[in-house]
Design brief:
The structure holds two protein chains of two kinds. By secondary structure, chain A is an alpha+beta fold. Chain A has 15 helices and 14 strands. In chain A, the strands form four sheets. In chain A, strands 4-3-7-6-5 form a five-stranded antiparallel β-sheet, with helices on both faces. A five-stranded mixed β-sheet of chain A has the order 9-11-12-14-13. The longest helix of chain A is centred in the middle third of the chain and has 48 residues, at 164-211. The two termini of chain A are 19 Å apart. Chain B has nine helices and twelve strands. Chain B has helices spanning 12-15, 26-38, 50-60, 82-91, 109-117, 130-144, 178-189, 197-205, 212-226; strands spanning 19-22, 44-47, 70-74, 100-104, 122-125, 151-153, 157-160, 165-168, 173-175, 194-196, 236-239, 243-246. Chain B has a five-stranded parallel β-sheet with strand order 2-1-3-4-5, with helices on both faces. In chain B, strands 6-7-8-9 form a four-stranded antiparallel β-sheet, with no helix packed on it. In chain B, strands 10-12-11 form a three-stranded antiparallel β-sheet. Classes of the chains: A alpha+beta, B alpha/beta. Chain A binds chain B through residues 253-255, 257-258, 260-266, 268-270, 272-274, 288, 291-292, 295, 299, 302, 306, 312, 315, 320, 323, 326-327, 329-330, 333-337, 344-347, 361, and chain B through 1-4, 25, 27-28, 31-32, 34-35, 38, 76, 105-110, 125-132, 193-199, 208-209, 239-243.
Chain lengths: 504, 249
């Protein structure tokens, strides 16, 4: 049935993008977190490095130690042994330059280091922090400039000069950096989101098909190709199962007919056998009636199964409803089995020629089911009236009742209105609770994938159990024709079923 | 077990029709045979397979006196199914138009269509009630074998279908028109049962559309001919909302 509700679509179409949006946002959050963690790691490493290298055993302490240990006595310089040890420990050397640029004291100075300096030499050495490629550190004293050199390649020295405007604009640059980062984030996010949606849309469509019991074949390119293959496989598997189930139901409903014929035939013989006692004949009549009921159930099950699995498309033709109803009611009267439930048929003048597009067998089946329902629930007898009327397409007149009707039904209602088959009995009726339970069951069967499956499931109350598959099938048939059914009734005042079918 | 007879009363001239029943389920075949015996049919044979059935048919077809006059066939038969058997039966000149009724455990429109298009006269879906089977068989036989004594006894008149004459209880004799004859025969074939106006129109005009008023006019005139008091009919009664029913005396 192509008119099955599109219940699942809306949910899935918003939930999937939401899921992926959340995933992407989580990734972005992670990226931000990484930056923050990096910053803290950097700070920690920098701190620990400076602790290690710039407090003791570092150039600064060495320079200070030499400065403290270097003293002038009687015109000559001497270094304290402790300071000498510090220098030796580092493999470093030292010299003292006077204001004229000549080395006035030196210790362990390598040969490639000059001993006299022009002011330019001094400036360059100070600027680059090297003296003849040796990392060098400078200390200004009253008596000159102390230079402590270290072995080549032990220290890097960096000088940096930035325009003041650059520093002033730094916040702006940071902001720009941040903005560009954010833009990249969002661009990535939207592109991924669209790509995800595009990639997911066919998958969603295929899953919708599956959930509505239609076969779905999905061929995808790229990374998701195997997802498509798997859905196709799952669909084929489901189809196989459905076909197996439908075949099984068909097989059972076929195989049960011959033994049932014999049960009903012999029960009927006993019921008519004048040699049997009154009691035995009455019992045989009960067996016969129950046999008929089983026959009805089997037919319903088979019909429901065929509707579910679209085993055969609806055999649509123009049906003259009054005629169909006359033949159904006349057949019931001609059976002559059931004098306790007389049926009256009334056809409104404006519905005398009402024609609907439908499968006559199914529509007859629906009416028979409603009649059987009335008989089943009023064993002591009741009269049943069947009335065919036409309802023009007025929104107000069908309001509320057809909330569940398919869009096709709404369209039909707008074009030509409905033919209404109203079957009312004057029997025991139905309590408000039971009516509600029954309607709930019908509603459930509409969302369930299959009416036959629903009938097999455990019904929630005795009332709905009693009504069995019968009314569910009526509802199913009505909806298959773009129509709907409405139930009504009060305790003691009978039960009514209205089948509305769109007029052709 | 004896089956109680008299389902709706099968006319005497139909009871000696030679019937062949083919069903591979021996017990069901026995039951159907018992039902038919109970309903008064005295000439019922049973076969359990298509080949056996064809052998019986050919043996009996040698003489028109012994050839079968009705076949009741199951659809699902081992080997050759009922449809094929029907085709074979139709292929024999003696049975080109012998009535056939299908007994089927299938409940699918396709089977009905294929059965009827092959030339079956009716079908009955299992499970069925005995009286239904007897009614269908009687109806098929009535359609196919004209009554030897074409007299219809009614409350206030006697209708002779051969001459289209109505002998009224008050001594008058009136003639039926062709349409009235047709309508009355349809009702007589289904005596005691409701015939819907649609079925009547279809049988008499070939369509159920647009002839309801004509039908009512014909019924009115028919009543004037066969009823003592046409405004309070005792034989041709109206079943409100459905159609008409002929009540025999």
């Amino acid at each position: 049935m192509s008119r099955r509700s599109d219940k699942a679509n809306r949910g899935a179409q918003t939930s999937f993008p939401r899921f992926f949006t959340k995933q992407l946002l989580a990734f972005l959050l992670l990226a931000f977190l990484v930056v923050v963690v990096d910053f803290f790691l950097y700070a920690a490493i920098a701190y620990s490095e400076s602790e290690n290298n710039f407090n003791d055993g570092t150039p600064i302490t060495t320079v200070r130690a030499v400065d403290a240990g270097l003293a002038q006595e009687d015109g000559t310089y001497a270094l304290s042994p402790e300071a000498g040890d510090v220098l030796a420990e580092q493999g470093a050397w030292a010299l003292l330059m006077d204001d004229a640029g000549a080395a006035v004291w030196e210790k362990d100075v390598p040969a490639d280091v000059p001993r006299s300096f022009t002011p330019a030499d001094t400036a360059m050495a100070a600027h680059y922090g090297t003296l003849a490629d040796h990392p060098a550190f400078f200390w200004s004293r009253d008596d000159g400039l102390l230079v402590v050199g270290f072995p080549k390649d032990t220290y890097w020295h960096m000088t940096m000069a930035l325009p003041a405007s650059t520093i002033r604009n730094l916040p702006l640059y940071l902001l720009l950096l941040f903005a560009v980062d954010l833009a990249i984030f969002f661009a990535t996010y939207f592109v991924s989101r669209r790509r995800t949606q595009r990639a997911v849309a066919p998958i969603l469509g295929a899953l919708d098909n599956l959930s509505e019991g239609r076969p779905s074949t999905l061929r995808l390119k790229g990374d998701l190709a195997d997802v498509g293959e798997r859905i196709t496989e799952a669909s084929a598997l489901l189809e196989q199962k459905d076909a197996a189930r439908a075949n099984w139901i068909r097989g059972v409903s076929h195989d049960i007919r011959t033994p049932l014929s014999m049960i009903m035939g012999y029960a009927d013989a006993v019921a008519h056998d004048e040699r049997a006692s009154e009691d035995v004949r009455a019992q045989a009549a009960v067996i016969r009636a129950q046999g008929l009921r089983i026959a009805d159930l089997v037919t319903d099950l088979n019909t429901a199964s065929r509707l579910d699995y679209d085993m055969q498309p609806l055999d649509l033709e123009r049906i003259h409803l009054a005629r169909t109803l006359r033949s159904v009611v006349a057949a019931h009267a001609n059976d002559g089995l059931d004098e306790a439930h007389p049926i009256e048929l009334e056809v409104d003048d404006d519905a005398a020629d009402a024609v609907v597009l439908g499968d006559e067998r199914l529509i007859a089946r629906a009416v028979e089911n409603v009649l059987a329902n009335a008989r089943l629930h009023n064993e002591r007898g009741c009269s049943v009236s069947v009335r065919l009327s036409a309802r023009p397409s007025e929104k107000a007149s069908c309001g509320g009742r057809d909330a569940d009707a398919s869009p096709a039904a709404a369209a039909a209602a707008e074009s030509a209105g409905f033919a209404v088959i109203r079957v009312a009995d004057d029997g025991g009726g139905i309590s408000r609770e039971d009516l509600a339970a029954l309607e709930a069951r019908l509603a459930r069967s509409r969302t369930a994938a299959s009416a036959s499956g629903c009938a097999v499931g455990s019904p929630s109350s005795t009332a709905t159990a009693e009504h069995g598959l019968g009314l569910v099938l009526v509802d199913r048939i009505a909806r298959a024709h773009g129509g709907f059914i409405a139930l009504g009734g009060t305790p003691g005042e009978g039960f009514t079923v209205e089948i509305s079918l769109p007029l052709a | 077990m004896a089956m109680a007879g008299g389902f709706g009363g099968v006319e005497r001239h139909l009871r000696d029709k030679r019937i062949l029943l083919v069903d591979d389920e021996a017990e069901l075949a026995d039951m159907v045979a018992t039902i038919l015996h109970g309903a008064g049919f005295s000439n019922v044979d049973v076969a359990h397979a298509s080949t056996e059935a064809l052998a019986c048919i050919d043996e009996r077809a040698a003489s028109p006196e012994s050839a079968y006059q009705l076949f009741v066939l199951d659809v699902m038969l081992p080997g050759m199914d009922g449809f094929e058997l029907l085709a074979r039966i139709r292929g024999r000149t003696a049975h080109a138009s012998t009535p056939v009724l299908f007994l089927t455990a299938k409940d699918e429109p396709f089977d009905r269509v294929s059965g009827l298009s092959l030339g079956a006269d009716d079908y009955l879906t299992k499970p069925f009630l005995p009286q239904e089977l007897v009614l269908r068989i009687a109806a098929v036989l009535r359609r196919c074998y004209a009554e030897e004594n074409p007299l219809l006894e009614l409350e206030a008149s006697r209708v002779n279908f051969a001459t289209a004459e109505v002998e009224r209880a008050d001594g008058d004799t009136v003639l039926l028109t062709a349409k009235e004859h047709e309508i009355l025969s349809v009702l007589a074939r289904n005596a005691g049962r409701i015939v819907t106006i649609d079925a009547l129109c279809e049988a008499c005009w070939g369509t159920s559309f647009g002839y309801e008023n004509s039908l009512m006019a014909h019924i009115r005139r028919l009543r004037e001919k066969i009823e003592a008091n046409p405004s309070r009919p005792a034989s041709l009664v109206t079943v409100k909302g459905l159609g008409y029913k002929l009540v025999k005396r």
